[in-house]
Recover the amino acids of this structure.
């Protein structure tokens, strides 16, 4: 809820800036939001493009490495809380830890699949905007069959810029999960949602061991002209 309010503040301030100056860009630095996004994408590409990690006996290590990137580059606790919404307040500490753990698995698979889906495309970094401790990094994936906007929303935490949402062509990952989770809880229960998330994790794990991974080394990142 707090993140939603902060992001709304960011958006309203950015709108006022844009109305005066068209586009206001913050200069990326070593610890800037842009550099944080770039390094995250680079790490994920390195893991997913590693030929050794594509071997059947290395799939678990591959999953663990992707999970480590998410744990250090993504504010997964806030993403989990915001994605679940109101039911979060009714969970005890053990249930929250369980849900966050399942959510991390979901993010790991979602991020990996999205990168694999766009592995032939160029990622162009267009802008970086900041308001206080919140920021937005705008990028675009460009290729022969795709022209996709990808905006990363980040918040500063202990000197690091951590992703708390990704918006693809206007569709928020957190928003999509929140809608899906709410529908499942409405149709079954919170326990039903947890059961489906646990089952999904098992299915993905089996799928990875029986399906060859896609090579990602061809994806390039470039600065905006």
């Amino acid at each position: 809820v707090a993140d939603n309010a902060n992001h709304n503040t960011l958006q309203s301030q950015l709108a006022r800036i844009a109305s005066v100056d068209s586009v206001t860009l913050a200069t990326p630095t070593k610890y800037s939001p842009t550099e944080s996004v770039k390094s995250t994408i680079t790490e994920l590409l390195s893991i997913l493009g590693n030929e050794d990690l594509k071997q059947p006996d290395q799939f678990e290590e591959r999953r663990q490495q992707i999970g480590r990137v998410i744990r250090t580059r993504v504010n997964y606790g806030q993403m989990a809380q915001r994605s679940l919404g109101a039911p979060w307040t009714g969970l005890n500490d053990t249930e929250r830890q369980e849900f966050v753990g399942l959510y991390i698995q979901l993010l790991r698979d979602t991020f990996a699949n999205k990168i694999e889906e766009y592995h032939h495309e160029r990622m162009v970094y267009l802008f970086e905007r900041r308001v206080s401790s919140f920021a937005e990094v705008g990028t675009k994936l460009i290729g022969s069959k795709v022209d996709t906007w990808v905006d990363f929303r980040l918040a500063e935490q202990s000197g690091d810029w951590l992703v708390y949402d990704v918006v693809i062509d206007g569709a928020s990952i957190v928003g999509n999960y929140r809608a899906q989770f709410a529908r499942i809880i409405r149709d079954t229960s919170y326990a039903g949602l947890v059961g489906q998330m646990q089952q999904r994790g098992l299915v993905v794990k089996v799928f990875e061991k029986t399906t060859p991974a896609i090579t990602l080394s061809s994806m390039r990142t470039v600065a905006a002209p």
Notes: The first helix runs from residue 2 to 21.
